[in-house]
Amino acid sequence: xxxxxxxxxxxxxxxxxxxxxxxxxxxxxxxxxxxxxxxxxxxxxxxxxxxxxxxxxxxxxxxxxxxxxxxxxxxxxxxxxxxxxxxxxxxxxxxxxx
Length: 98
Fold this sequence. Notes:
Elements: E1 32-37, E2 47-49, E3 55-57, E4 60-64, E5 70-74, E6 81-83, E7 87-92
Antiparallel strand pairs: 1-7, 2-3, 4-5, 5-6
């Protein structure tokens, strides 16, 4: 007999699929500017857009692949993502008073 707290539909997969990288967000985060960058130009704190329309900040960057050109990005709530080509990120911009 199955425990009553386990609820699973036959149509739903028991595994959660992580969202994929997307081209942009419907509304950019406050005080950020959209920048198209190569993987080796990424910085900690850059906000990366995903297909679920949520921007997530990068918390760790590791060089991977032949020539160390690709980057493996780590996020707080997703599995690591490897980036090979240019992507759009949102980078914080600061207004400085003269």
